Amino acid sequence: MRMLLTALTSLCLGTLLSSHCLLTSLVAAEPDASRSRLQLELVDARRIWDQAPHNAFTDLLYHADRWYCVFREGSKHVSPDGSLRILTSIDGNAWESLSLVTHPTDDLRDAKICVTPSGRLMLNGAGMQADAEVRYHSMVWFSDDLGKTWDAGRRIGDPGDWLWRVQWHDGHAYTMGYGTQRDRDQRKLKLYRSETGEHFDTWIDAVNVPNGVGEDRILFREDGTALCLLRRETGSKTGMLGTSRAPFKQWEWKELDQRIGGPNMIELPGGHLLAAVRLYSPKTRTALCWLDPAAGTLTEALTLPSGGDTSYAGLVLHEGQLWVSYYSSHEEKTAIYLARVRF
User: Fold this and answer.
1) pLDDT tens per residue, the chain (343 residues)?
2) For the chain, which domains are there?
3) First-residue to last-residue Cα distance in the chain
4) Eight-class DSSP state of 268
């Protein structure tokens, strides 16, 4: 009997150990962010607009079987004649100007384009008056005819706050808004929310991040979490990544391992997170980087043909390829480019 009990005990322990080893093996085999990254291949990158002396700060949209690319054009990087140009294309190859949004007194800057829940096209950006006491006012414009004409626009948010990139989620528009004081150390961050896109209310009066951050991209993931990628120009100057869940009143932040500019990001099939940013070292360039939220790392996956004054990308996943609008000055002048990337 004692020998039988000993044998049974050994058998049970062996089974448990085998199960534990199998479970350990399965956990170890679970692909982490670095092992499961897709391979990126640049299909092509073409200049699609260079009509103004300075063409910059893009965004991209595919809507109603048509492409839209928006950007600022002016005589210089900062100039009182800044306007928002909207290009359109049926196939992504042949582009033409659809409309131009101007302002009698403001340098219009950094337009982002989206579709409201009611189906209207919406631009958000900022108007700048360099010599005014309050230099920046955030603005929105709407179009009811697929971008051919736009209304006169209206100011949104608090005076001096730059509401950077509007993102719609569950019928509400969200955007971070950063102060534009000349002293970057005084610039605070707020979170704004709107039901219509015409008027924005303060959702968080002071987001729990260091002063000096700005230029955000909020991404609402399929699992219900929200991520926020932020540029920072104070302290270590490394980017920051925030995580939150509905109602998005509380955010947890971590520093990334890179300095970034012009942030945008997209979630690819399988949960892969890809960011489009300006990188600074060893030289300035526009790059696509894998984002690992747990580790707080950006790993460069593909450098787009770019250099000098560059970045501010728009991202659209379309028919299995990633389309990227951006601007760059690596070929004589600042111009607008469109790249296609496959996995």
Assistant:
1) 444 334 434 433 343 333 333 333 322 333 344 446 789 999 999 999 999 999 999 999 999 999 999 999 999 999 999 999 999 999 999 999 999 999 999 999 999 999 999 999 999 999 999 999 999 999 999 999 999 999 999 999 999 999 999 999 999 999 999 999 999 999 999 999 999 999 999 999 999 999 999 999 999 998 999 999 999 999 999 999 999 999 999 999 999 999 999 999 999 988 999 999 999 999 999 999 999 999 999 999 999 999 999 999 999 999 999 999 999 999 989 999 999 999 9
2) 44-342 (2.120.10.10)
3) 63
4) P
Instruction: Assign 125 to helix, strand or coil.
Output: strand
Q: Tell me the two tokens of residue 311.
A: 């970045």
Of 136, 69, 141, which is closest to residue 107 (Cα–Cα)?
136
Q: What is d(CA 328, CA 309) in angstroms, rounded to the nearest whole number?
A: 6
Tokens of residue 54, six digits: 């300075």
Is the entire prediction scored with pTM above 0.85? yes
| Contacts by 116-122, CB closer than 8 A, 24 or more apart | 116/142, 116/168, 116/173, 116/196, 116/197, 117/168, 117/171, 120/144, 121/61, 121/63, 121/68, 121/146, 121/147, 122/166, 122/197
Q: How far apart are CA 163 and CA 308, in angstroms?
A: 26
Amino acid identity at 216: D
